[in-house]
Amino acid sequence: MADARQDSHGCGNCSNSEEDKYSDDDFETSKLGTKEYWEEAYQKELETFKDIGDVGEIWFGEESMNRVLRWMQKAKIPEDAAILDIGTGNGAFLVELAKHGYRNLTGIDYSPASVELARNVLQAEGLTDVTVKETDFLNCGGELAGFDVCIDKGTFDAISLKPDDNKEGKKLYVHNLRDALKDSGIFAITSCNWTKEQLLERFCEGFEFVQELPTPSFQFGGRIGNSVAALIFKRVR
Question: What domains sit in the chain, N to C, each tagged with a CATH number?
């Protein structure tokens, strides 16, 4: 995985004070931050899949998966790399990873309906050697470790919207992510709630910024912005 390091550099903007780096009142809370919302949503998608074979929504669209896959191939991430899909949802990303030759795949989600849906989708694709587990990433108790790559496509966003104690949830996420990754392991995050600059601050301690992936841009009021941010980090001691 040495090639993944070529463009990396440190954040260079860490502060000794959590309060100095960012506000914990970033967003209003939302039902999208609750387990109940996602369990209901995935239960409906599970029933639809069983009825007509529709896997449901691909969070952020197919291109959100393709841009990460393109980077992984360019970075020469080996096919036997241990890869964790954090908040796997319907398992669509696991399917695409497997189709691209990656064979050491694990998906986790705290929604039982999501886990059942992902397993059904993978089975329908003939992918029986992919691990999917019902696991709450914020309460995994050191269960997750030794991964070469961790991928997040919307899960950190949802945690940031939790109605109860999302401040602690965000800190726990970063801590557990550090524990889950090997030294020099790669973290790929796609977010619609956080800007590049905010993500650099959130993942400053224990991570090194590698690269920003190109995402669609828009112009409003004379300013140019992006609808999502997609960043690559490397785990460092």
Answer: 31-235 (3.40.50.150)
